Amino acid sequence: MSKDRYSRQSFLGGNAEELISRCTIAVPGLGGGGSHIVQQLAHIGFQRYVLYDFDVVEESNLNRLVGANLTDALAETPKLHLAKKMIYGLQPNATVRGFACKWQEKPEPLRECQIVVGCVDSYKGREELEIACRRYLMHYIDIGMDVHGKERPVIGGQVVQSSHGGLCMRCMGFLTDEKLAAEAARYGDAGHRPQVIWPNGVLASTAVGLAVDLITNWTRNSRSHAYLAYDGNQGTLKESLTLRNLAIKACPHFRDCEVGDPVFVEL
Amino acid sequence: MKVQIKLTGALHADIIRDLARPHPFAAERVGFVFGRAGSLTDHGRLILLTRYHSIPDDQYVEDHTVGARIGSEALTWAMQAVYHGRPAREGIFHLHLHGHYGETGMSATDRREIPRLIPGFQSVGRDAVHGIIILSADHGSGWVWPQSGTEPIHADCVSVIGAPVGVFDRGRAK
Amino acid sequence: MAYPTEQIEDLKRYCAKLSALPEGQVTFLYMQGLSLPAGCQPSVCDALLCPAARDGYPSRLYLSVKVASPYARNWNCSNARIGERNWFAFSWKVDLNDPTLTQLLIAHLNGFAKEK
Fold first, then answer.
1. Burial class (CB within 10 angstroms; exposed 0-12, middle 13-18, buried 19+) of B72
2. Residue A190 belongs to a domain with what CATH number?
3. Looking at the domain covering B3-169, what would its CATH class be?
4. What is the per-residue pLDDT for B149?
């Protein structure tokens, strides 16, 4: 392979490719957001992947599923297969551990990762991923978008980074009991959430940028947390207002005793 | 059996800062770090280091034949810590720093001296995993004794989950 | 979070083993071998009692399996991940004023035995 391959990303640091290649990164959810993430990770040079998705390509995915085409919809190609094809096409020596299930059904491989990029579609799913990441010491980066309002649709979204020792999604005001309760009340009536490719692209790219920075520290920002709010109507992505106005300096929601396999204290 | 060790960037920085301090007479410093276990596939083990104990200067024994020797007070403290960590199945790891770059291994002195501590830790903390960690300027290696195991398993990887992330693979120098 | 000793001792009567599991801001009560009301299949399973408000419920009882019971229940919680295990719960709101742990447990178990 020519050493020119990564010459355009030399600003990331002299040993950036080596650092990136050693990191194991998980992507639970290979839909609209996850497919973007995987594509970019493969281009940048990530070599070690843990992927989860049990779903197959459908026609309604084709407006946003990166890497999918009409044949995949007809053939009901597993999204996991698409992701692997994307990765191996760019990184033939990559190690890809793929699981056609929810990560909760096979959680052990996730724990080997240093970074998890969550592309799930529920607040409960995000909460569970964050708990797992805090337990087994992984950086957690979350992306998601939604469209609300019928008369005047508004596209919103977020990129959140939650890391051990830093503020969590509850601290940052992204996860709340109200959101979880409202979601639980809607169970079985979730319907098909609107999804389009361009916000997914913005959010996925930003998430990948955060991941690369966590590994290479090229910006020297050394972020312990992040919450970027996306306004798809204005075309902006900026630090969430709730984060800017936050009084909390240390996370009270996760305790050191909750690291590792749960310990049940007999009463 | 796959073994991985993880620690946060903050903990790693605290450890390096402490171990790099000069000691009045010892050539190097030693500490203890505590870890909780996580399960991996195929009975693999993930060790998550959570807290560090710096050994006070006056608990070293002057012995110029070795880099550092800790006294009985330090060992007693360690045993008590293992005992108190039993409900959480917390294991203890002897920790020190080799002052070079790249992957590090146990010196002849390390191989002779440090594993002698393990049976004592195992007898007190039966349900935990104990071991040895050696850091270098830019790498890290670990050896883990499973419960009741007499032979160590060389960890496949030590990861620092900070900003930046550090991944120290066994058999792959920086 | 610590629970009153006498309430813990009372709760132990309903299961083979009782443990505490702290996670997030809640301390769950892990009940191994909880006996379920007559007509339930299985008749015994593991359970997590969550005495604190969660997911829109003032308290919740999670079970290790989806239990078949005399009355059909809306199992609106599947594979909830708590304590690195997957749990199930049906929609059942318990509204009691300052219940003991046992009163809470029984109120949740009544969800199997009552038509509505």
1. exposed
2. 3.40.50.720
3. alpha beta
4. 79
